[in-house]
Amino acid sequence: MGNPILTDDRVGILIARKLKENLDLKDIDVKETNQAGFYLIDLLAGYDRVIIIDSIKTKKNRVGTIYRFSLEDLFTTPRLVSIHEIDLNTAIELGKKLGLKMPDEVILYAVEIEDNTTFSEKCTPDVERAIPLAVKMILEVIK
Amino acid sequence: MAHYLHSHIAHFYALAAPDFVVGPDAPVAERNILGVINKVGLEIGGEVIKHRASAQHIQEMIGGKPTHPVCNVPGGMSKPITEEERKEIEEIAKSQVEFAKFGIKLFDDVVLKNKTYVDLILGDVYSLKTNYMGLVDKNNKVNFYDGDIRVVDTEGNEIVKFKDSDYLNYIGEHVEEWSYLKFPYLKSIGWKGLVDGKDSGIYRVAPLGRLNAADGMATPIAQENYERFYDTLGGKPVHATLAQHWARLIEIVYAAERLLELVTDPEITSKNVRTIPTETPTEGIGVVEAPRGTLIHHYFTDEKGIVKDVNIIVATVNNYPSMCMSIRKAAQGLIKNGKVNDGLLNMVEMAFRAYDPCLACATHSLPGEMPLIANIYNSKKELIETIKR
User: Fold this and answer.
1) Contact A57 B367 (CB under 8 A)
2) pLDDT tens digits, residue range B350-378?
3) Any bridge partners for residue A68, and if so which?
4) Which H or E run includes B300?
């Protein structure tokens, strides 16, 4: 997930592209998106297991830190996190309620970023350096 | 039209409906779209998801991507609509018209038949007397992407109607050092601060602004509902901020009806979708009605046609002064003796949510926590409580 023209916001997409080069894509789809909210239902429906890769800006750890979360870690209540759309947890619960096949497992990887407000198709150096490690970590989980 | 449908459906059912269907002071864990579905039933929930998704699908067919289309090229569009796509869109449009009528009925049943909610909508706490702005066609009917910009005053009288290319003559942008957003105002009246009333230059856009600035809707069912809107709420203009939600549902009807009109027009599958420009542009101004209001883009280019200067007044920015005032008025009217509970805080948020502000969508980075802080001050401007979401 990410906006590919907003500096570090693109890190999730870069990691996904690297994964795509290193995966047997017979049973795996790699998708890129800069959307969230209701669109997540369309995106996630039909899959058994999903790994979401995004950027995060907690400002509590050094830039380039890689986090692994489960849904419970980030969103403990199914309420609107955004004032504008529904959050990931709500999208999954809503999909299940409506009888759609939603993933049994969702893992979130996020990279601590520095800049997601400047137009650029290049990440900042510390975020760029985190990409190979993130790819390695996620490949191990998938394999 | 498809973009309006998906955006307005998401806003009404995910953001507005929880406040009315589940209740403004219901426990926060229930006041969401899941709570709405628990109340109105799974079948209706499925219809909401289906119609939002099918509207997105139309955008994907035409634009290549659902929300951020990649079809625009200098001089027009990158590809035409095929007959097969047209037929699919026509079926979706018919279904959207029926779903739009359902939305109006839901609002009637859940909100308008409940005196408490009607009082809430019409109450002074959620009212602002502002000017209103929106694009209109030659008959002064609401139009989303063509026509002139019409502005009416707090009594509903036309102040001015102007071409998009003249916007700088009519709209000023005030700057405050405490905010990175600007505060647009009508130049003919001037910036008088964050005040409403007939002497204020502040105007509102978005569904309520569009309906107030126009003389009606250009499609039949939307027009019927437009008339009922003003008959019910006491005539034009309607100053009730929460009436934005009803206005939004009327616009869903218009968008669905208009979608059906357009997709059954034989010209819609014309292969003539691009006129390749032969001259280098120097300056361009474009204005459309985005779901959240009037959207103004202004570009200057160099001798190679490369953009060198840009001014954009985004829809939400037009409403920014009013959002500030709406939150202030709701907080002052609802919070008494410094006592704040979750229900009251939500009712303050409702003033903000009515505008569907697009402030949080610049990126999709996870903030890791809800970025909402409410500071409660006493009458001496001393901070007495901070509540974080």
Assistant:
1) yes
2) 898 898 766 644 333 444 445 567 888 88
3) A109
4) strand B293-301
Closest residue of chain A to B52, computed from CA coordinates: A38
Q: Please name which of B324, B376, B328, B331 lies closest in space to residue B176, comparing C-alpha atoms.
A: B324
For residue B152, the surrounding DSSP H or E stretch is strand B148-152
The number of beta carbons lying within 10 Å of the beta carbon of residue B350 is 24
Domain limits at A130?
A: 7-142
A11 located within any domain: yes
- Domains in chain A, number: 1
The full 3-state SS of B354-384, as one line of letters, equals CCCCCCCCCCCCECCCCCCEEEEECCCCCEE
Alpha-carbon span A83 to A85, nearest angstrom: 6
Q: Which of A50, A33, A56 is nearest to A110 (CA)?
A: A56
Note the pLDDT tens digit of each residue in B50-107: 999 999 999 999 999 877 788 999 899 999 999 999 999 999 999 999 999 999 999 9
Q: How many CB pairs under 8 A join A and B?
A: 108
Q: Which of B365, B372, B373 to mutate to test the interface with A (most CBs of A within 10 A)?
A: B365
Contact indicator for B376, B335 with CB cutoff of 8 Å: yes
Q: Do B42 and A98 touch (CB under 8 A)?
A: yes
Q: Are A65 and B368 in contact (CB under 8 A)?
A: no
DSSP state of B110: I
Range of the domain at B151: 131-213+279-389
User: Chain B interface residues facing chain A, Cβ-Cβ under 8 Å?
Assistant: 10, 14-15, 28-29, 31-34, 37, 42, 45-46, 49, 52-53, 56, 66-68, 349, 352-353, 356-368, 370, 372
Distance CA B389, CA B213 (A): 36
Query: What angle do helix axes B315-334 and B342-353 make, rounded to 10 degrees?
Result: 150
d(CA B319, CA B306): 31
B350 and B242 Cβ atoms separated by less than 8 Å: yes
Task: State the complex-level ipTM.
Answer: 0.70
B188/B110 same-domain check:
no
Query: Are B96 and B8 part of one and the same domain?
Result: yes
Is the separation of the CB atoms in A43 and A34 below 8 Å? no
Q: Is B161 exposed, middle or buried (0-12, 13-18, 19+ CB in 10 A)?
A: middle
Of B224, B258, B276, the one marking the end of a domain is: B276
Q: At B342, is the pLDDT very low, low, confident or very high (cuts 50, 70, 90)?
A: confident
Give the Cα-Cα-Cα angle B252, B253, B259 (nearest 5 degrees). 85
Beta strand ranges found along B175-246 (DSSP E): 183-186, 203-204
| Contact status, residue B294 vs residue B149, Cβ threshold 8 Å | yes
* E-strand stretches of chain A: 49-56, 66-70, 105-112
Decide: helix, strand or coil at residue B88. helix
Question: For residue B247, what are its two tokens?
Answer: 């206005």
Q: What tokens were used for A19?
A: 């994964």
